[in-house]
Each structure stands twice: as C-alpha cells, then as structure tokens.
Design brief:
Layout lengths: L2 H53 L57 E2 L14 H13 L18 E8 L4 H9 L9 E7 L6 E8 L7 E4 L15 H17 L1 H7 L12 E4 L13 E8 L14 E9 L9 E7 L2 E4 L2 H10 L15 H5 L28 E4 L2 E4 L2 E8 L3 E9 L2 E17 L9 E3 L22 E9 L4 E23 L3 E18 L2 E10 L4 E9 L4 E2 L13 E2 L2 E5 L2 E16 L7 E10 L1 H6 L17 E8 L4 E3 L7 E11 L5 E8 L24 E5 L37 E11 L9 E13 L13 E4 L20
Parallel strand pairs: 1-11
Antiparallel strand pairs: 2-3, 3-4, 4-5, 6-7, 7-8, 8-9, 9-10, 11-12, 12-13, 13-14, 14-15, 15-16, 15-25, 17-18, 18-19, 19-20, 19-34, 20-21, 21-33, 22-25, 23-24, 24-25, 25-32, 26-27, 26-29, 28-31, 29-30, 30-33, 31-32
Amino acid sequence: MDYTNRDSYKLSSRGPEVEEGKMTAKREFCCAQLFGALLFCVGLVAGILIGIYVYHGGPDAEVTCKNLPDSMMGGQTTPRPTAKPTTMSPQVTTTDKVQPSDDCKKCKSRQARMEWDGSDPEIFSPLTSEEMLKIYNFLVDNNYVYKRNVSEESVSLKTNYVPYMYINPPKKSEVLAYKKGTGPYPGRYARVHVVRGDRTIPDYMEYKIGPLQAQTMTIEQLFADGELGFNSRPYDYVETAVYDKILIPEFEILAPLTKESFDGAYYPKEGNDFSFWYFNGPPGDKGDERETRLVSYLNPLAPNGYDFLELDFLPLTATIHCPGNDFDSWYVYDYYYLNQGPFANASALMNAYNSGSKRKFALPAGYRKTILDRHLPDRDSNEPFRRYSNMPAPRTYEPEGPRYSIKGHQVEWMDWQFAVTSGQLRGPALYAISFKEMSIAYELSLNEIGVIYGSGASAQTNVIYTDSSYGIGEYYGVIQTVDCPEHATLLETSHWDVYLSESVVHKSICVFEADGENALWRHKGWDFEGGLRNNYLVVRVSATIDNYDYIVEWHFYLDGKIYTIVSASGYIQGAFWDNENPFMGADKSRDAFGYKVNTNTHGQIHDHMFGFKVDLDILGTDNTMEVIHWKTADVLTALRSQVPDVDTVPPYFKHNITRYLQYEYVEKETANRINLDEPKFWVVVNENERNKWGAQRGYQIKPLATAAQTVTDAHPAMPALSFTKYHCTVTKRKESEQTSTSSSDVNRLDKPIGDLERMLNDEAIRNTDIVNWVSVGFLHLPTSEDSPMTNRVESGFMLKPFNFFDKTAVFDLQGVLNTRVNWRTERPPPHEPCLERMP
C-alpha cells in the first residue's frame, strides 16, 4: 500500500468539511463587506445631502460661506521639502478640523460716508440742487434771465438763459486764512454763464454769484459787455434744435438722393436713423463768425438725442451759416457729396446728382438694419465662449469695511486728507491735499482736453475740440460693476440742464481702496525677507462727451505718491470710407489720414491732450521750481558743475566720462517740454524746509508715458491750445489765471482769452506761490481694434516725494517680515474669512 497516497487520501477525505467551512467564512466576510460598503454609501450620500443643506445654511439662512481658505477646511498640513535656502516663513500646521458653518458670517461693516457736520458749509463741494435753484430764481427775479415756461418747448437764442453753473472757489488766501483760524469763512460762490440773446447786440456773459449760504446774494459781472461775443459761445442744444428745423426743407429736396444712396434713409421722419453731427468744431476761425459744418450719419439711436454711434458717417455734408440769432438769415450752403462740390444749395446738388455727371454711391439693401449688430457693444453671438468665461472673475472686498472716511466731500485715508469736487465745464478737481498733516497741494484739477483731427473728408478736415466747451463735468452717474467696485462709495456731482432749465444731480464720483496685488516694496535676502502689499485709494470720475468717454482718476499711495491717470474709451469719431477716393493709393486699406476700420468707416488720426492745473504747496505757499539735469560729460566738467575752480581729475576715476547732475533753480516763468535725449527732473521744493539729511524738501512732477504736440505754431488752433505744446509750464499763481483756456477759446481762434503762453511774462517765481500746468496725452491712430469700441488708452503723471521725508514713509505700517530663526517677525492686521457684503 502506498501510505503516501493513503495519507493523501485521508487528508483529502477530510477536505470537503474544511473547504465548506472556509467558504462559509468567506461568504460571511463578503456579506460584512457588502453591508459595510452599503452603510458607507448610505452615509456618504447622507453626508453629502447634509453637507449641501448645511453649506447653503438651511431653509432660513440668509448667507453662505464660500470663501474659506483650504487651511480652515481641516486636515494636517505637511510642509513640502525645500532646497536651500529654506523658507523663513513660520510653518503652520492645522490639526483641529474647523466646520465651515462655524465661520459662515458676513464681513464686518462700517459706514464710510457721513453728512457734512461742519459749522460752515463745505467750501469746494459741487453746487447742490437747492443752491442751483436759488441761483436760477435769483437771476429770474433780477431780470438777468427769463423764466422758462413749462408749456414752451425750450428756451430760445432770442432770450436770456443759463447754459452752465458750477462752484466758484474763493480766493486761495481767504481759504488758507480760514483753515488756519486767522480769517473768516470765505463763503460759497457760483460761476454762472448766461447767453444774453435779448440784447440789441447779443453776447455771452459770466457772473459770480453769492455767498450762497446768505439770505442776500450779490452778482458780479466778470467780463465787459460784448467781450465774450455771441458767436463765440459754446454749442448747446438750444442752438442745435434750430438746426433741426432749418434742415427740414433742405433735405426734403435731397430725399431722392438720400433714399437712393443710403438704403432708403431720409430726413425728416420721426424715429428715423438719418441724423446729423453738428459739433465739428470750431464754428469758424474767427470769433465774430459762426458757421457749423454738419455731417450726416446713420444712427438708430438718434431719436433719443444722446447716443452718438459715430461709425456710419455718410458722404453728405454741408455748412450752416448761423451768426447772431436772426434765424431767418441763417442758411445752408457748401454741400458736398462724396467730396464732390461745393454746391451752393440743396437744389444745385440734386441737379448735379440727377445729371449723371457726378460719382454716386449706394449702400446695399438692408444695410441700415445691420448697424446696431455691428456697433452696439454686446457680446458677439457668432463667437464661441472662451473657456471658463462663464465663471465669475476674481474680486476684492473689504473684510472689515472701508478704511477711509468721508464727510460730505472731504476724504480721509491713511493720513491723506483732501476735498473732491467737480465743475460742469472743467470736470473733477481735488483741493487742500495733505499727507501726515503736511501740506502737499492746494489744487489738483483737470483744466482742459484738447483734440485735433486730421481727415480728408469734407466737413471733417481740421476738426478741433476743446472739451470744456461741451461740459466735461456733465455726468450722469456710474455704470454699476464697471466704473467702480461694488463696495465703492459714491459722491454727488451736479450740473445745470440748459434745455430744461433745471438742476441735474447724480452720484458720479467713486471712492474706494484698491488692492494693487503687488508689492509696494519688497526684499528677499538670506537671513530675512519682507515686503508691504500695495494698497491705494482711488478717486475716479467717468465722463461721456457725446461719443467719447474720459476717465479721470487719482491714486493715493501709502508712501506719499499721487498718480493722476486719464484714459479714453467709447466710440471714435469716424469718417466715411470712400473706396474710390482719388487721393488714395493702390492699398485700399489706408490713406494719408488712417485706416479702414469697419464696413464704411475711416479711422481719422487725432490726439487727446489733457491739461492739468497742479498748484503744489510744499509745506506752505512759498515754493521754488527746480530742474535737475541728468547729464553725461568728462569728469572735470562734472566736478566743475559744483566747484568751478577744480583743475585736476582725481586718479580714482578710471574713465574720463561720467554721469552727473546739474541743479538749476527756475528764476522766471517758463515752459518745459520732454526731451528724451536730455533727461530732466522737474521738482517743486520748499527752500526753507530741509529733511534730516539737509536736503530741500519737495515733490517731483513726473509725466508717465505721454505724447508731444506735433502741430506747429502755424496752425490756427495753437493760440487757443497752447497748453498742449508744453509738458510742464510754471507760472506765478494769480487769481486772474484760474484756467489755461477759456471755454469759448476754440470758437474764437483769432483772439483767445485763456492762451497759456500769455501767462508767460518773465515774472520772478523763486520762493513764491507758483502753479505748474502739466499736459499729458496720447496720439490716437484708430485701427480695427477701435471698432466698435475703443478700449482704454491712457496717460498721466505722478507726484512723487523728493527728499520730502527722512526715510521711506511707510514704516509706520505693519508689513511682512520673516527671519531665518524667527528672531523677529511681523504681520499686517489679520482678517477672518467672511462673506462679502453686497450693496
């Protein structure tokens, strides 16, 4: 017998019992696993449902908490290995699991804006609606203007009416004395413009009226009768309403031409898109003349009277002869069609058109229906969505409410103090700017915007604008979520509506603290690293002047810098693109004046020049302009710039050429241009004040990227726009020289009132009260990317402390400091995660 096999048999004969037990155990184990898995799934689903319920706060919850950092969501944080040098930041380990619901709360809040509670009214704030009504009634009661009858369509050029009114700041000396407690309250006054059409010889006048807080006001005439000619007054809708009526019989004659050429468009027809652009300034080269060059264009939004889609200008132009206010003597002449002309009147043009002797043009059928789709700035439905574009963009918020305070229009933030205001013609301005209770500037204001076009299209050649003539400060509020963040504080602006003879008040100035999301300063070394996150306060105002939008903003920095930034957006003022233009070369995409940028749109070259008044008061009013020249020369020349009798070069100079500085005090009024080949520092200093190291304390005026005026003095606009010729002009401050232009100068090019160059009369300016007139801007060559909308194009300048402090003026703030063995650390104030408060 084979025992081996027998034993094997014995073992195998017991196998079914053993195997059965094993199978039973395995089944029980699998059942337990399945049961456990089932419990796990049930628990997981229940957990998810409960989590969702808790995450949304239950049925009665008002807030959710979605902005908790990962470190608060529980779990161990394991430091990652790092290569030498190791990080000096303390390692943070989270061991206690934090429930999101425990931290689900709204951010703290603080009311930033408070009503003015001073014993006297604010000096610089915009006129209130009550003040404007009081002024208007005063003028009516004293027979300066006619009271508008509500049954009438509007005021008339044959009556006296008010086109503008705005705050007129008191004399600087009176304001400073009041603030020092050595003088009385200077009072609030208004500057009011009146068109005096009922005079035997009509004219235009400006008045000073006030004090507005008094029961009895006085009125002061600011110019002699007739000094401001009636024909040089700024345009307004009272005048253009007359144009609308005059053109009706003219374009009834031209209806066959316009219908055939412009896809059935004609004028007049209620609600029609055939419209006219009247503001191709100036209305003549001489102040005694007035002739308005009009351009026809297609604008589906024209009936509302405020939207200007200036991308579909048509090749049909004319001139309205419109001096004085005798409408019966006004007439339309110099018609051009496809730049062919001039034709004496509408009938002459129509006869030439019908004769077949002139070139013709016809828009394709249905063209007018495409205008809104091409020009209205909504999303192009033919384009695919960008990846993740359906997700909200990053945003900032205030964990514990705003860190600035505002009373009325007086702003305080991080040791900055200033007043913000705006005027109907000139726009935004800041007054009484101080930092750490030290005077920096009395006034920082937009003064003028000048634009000169180049075009080969009839009625658009040599277009010149000064935008104060159109009311830079006529604001109609902000675009929510676009102009400013939701947590910004909005301040009121005001202007007078000439057509309705009533005040308009909107919240148009926004103030907020911005997260620069970068370092104001930083350094990373071996034994320590540190930095300060860049936060700054923004004051921003956005204005629409017909087709263009201008954004003016000031950024106040923690270290004492002030950035002034100006930008342009909106619709370009195009011209008609004539593909058969005899002055166009072989390339049919461009000509001498620009590019084709849309179906029938020519992008005309032009510039945007912004003039600012910068009245620095560095620790007082007695200041000096210093120009520091950055030069290169031989060593002996450099040394002799400070010590004239030096005759040898020290042996430690390896090369006989070096950079050096040459210091120059500006003794008399002067104008300066940027020359990149001759770098200069423009600094306003107080010669009587020195820092700890003996240097005169001051502020540098530093233009950012800017353009230069390329138009020569031979151009007739240059006297009225002389501020555009220089980047920094310094003059002695005078109450009689408040602005660099007059609002009517562009309409009287032959004899402007506010020519900046006239202020340059060699007066001594050292150690006295001076003003810098700073001009910056950009050249705009429109391209296809400017259609339908010009994206933000900007320029500006910076005011920078220049030996004003003894050291970097931010070390009274907590930043970030890490050291290798944590022997010294520092952190800015912490914040707890919270839910952003929405307005």
